[in-house]
Amino acid sequence: MKMKKMYYLSFLSLLLCATAFAQKVAFEEYDLSNGMHVILHKDNSAPVVTTSVMYHVGAKDENPERTGFAHFFEHLLFEGTENIERGEWFKIVSANGGTNNANTTQDRTYYYEVFPSNNLALGLWMESERLMHPIINQIGVDTQNEVVKEEKRLRVDNSPYGQWTGQVFANLFNEHPYRWMTIGSLDHLDAASLEEFQAFNKKFYVPNNAVLVVAGDFETENAKKLIEDYFGSIPRGEDVVRETLTEQPITSKIEVTYEDPNIQIPAVFTVYRTPSMTTRDARVLDMISTILSDGKSSRLYKKLVDDEKKAMQVAAFNYSLEDYGAYIVLALPLGDNTLDDLVDEMNEEIVKLQTELISEKELQKLRNKFENQFVNSNSSVEGIASSLATYYMLYDDINLINTEIDIYNSITREEIREIAKKYLNPEQSLVLDYLPKKDIE
């Protein structure tokens, strides 16, 4: 029986190694003469292809008096081009068996299409049209202004807890443009002229501020020819120059109260400013989040939700960004438990991480979870395309798609303790009491 178990374990180890090896993502990269970076990932296992373009422009690149522009362009650049009539973009995609979408963060804007592989040329043409021939006119601006207003009403103004990110970042940052929400101010959008929108496009939507990724079923030489045909002649823009804004360290606790008319149950957020997503420290903080609140066996969940029944919900996560991050611990109280009680309980668990080494068993469990996440993130060409673009643009190291898991696996128990000490201290925190709005009699 013992010998059979040994054979089984040996087979399992080989299987895991084979799985990890199979997940290695091969890619090719090069630059066009206009400065656009191109990444190709060939995978002929299914007849689909993703074409995507990421632009290095997000909410942090906006004029403080014109916030919301980056997100607004995510909508505006589906309006139409010189060769795609207004309102036809989504019809063309769906009529050719495809899907598409876009999203914006504080750091970048990302557009993509997923087509049957025989429509690679169509996907590339459409993205080149978005870059080279967008029509930015008053009709489009007015139309998308209404769309963004409705989105803000639904997702922020009238959504329970919809204001928490805005309150956190507005109080965590004083100088850095992370201090405003990605959706921005509707008053700023209303006040902006057509010329301002056109100037924003001219500044940031240039090939030398973008990365194009083609991932999936294609023939390399054909893809390269199509890319050159559609993108090669687009003129290079002026280089985007960014000012680096440094925040002063937080040296005493910041206490803030916000009242939300859309909630009945209060919440408390304890937040710490943390370093760039590219740092090793940020990855250690990712692991700390998993220890504290990933799953029902995690420390905060087991203590506050299961055992003591003081919270109906609890979470801890590292909100990593290109320049800084925010480490966020939150809870919703159950019954008569106060927000102060929850903060004390959450701090107790953090102190344990700062003073006691996690067990070897916990460390191995952590590594297993991150291995699983790594495998899942590389399980589709759509996910791979997004990761390749992100690692190039925000990390300046595309091969992290294969090697970042090695960084996580090299993190030690001692590092977890030291990073918890370094960043997660009450005097370096923002405590946001997020309360139901009181009725005014």
TrEMBL record:
Record-level Gene Ontology MF annotations: metal ion binding; metallopeptidase activity
- GO biological process terms held by the UniProt record: proteolysis
- Lineage, top-rank taxon, reads Bacteria
Q: Please tell me the species this chain comes from.
A: Lutibacter agarilyticus
Q: Which UniProt keywords apply?
A: Hydrolase, Metalloprotease, Protease, Signal, Zinc
Q: What is this protein called?
A: Predicted Zn-dependent peptidase
Highest classification ranks of the organism: Bacteria, Pseudomonadati, Bacteroidota, Flavobacteriia, Flavobacteriales
Annotated Peptidase M16 N-terminal domain ranges read 38-170
Question: Per the database record, which ranges form the Peptidase M16 C-terminal domain?
Answer: 193-369
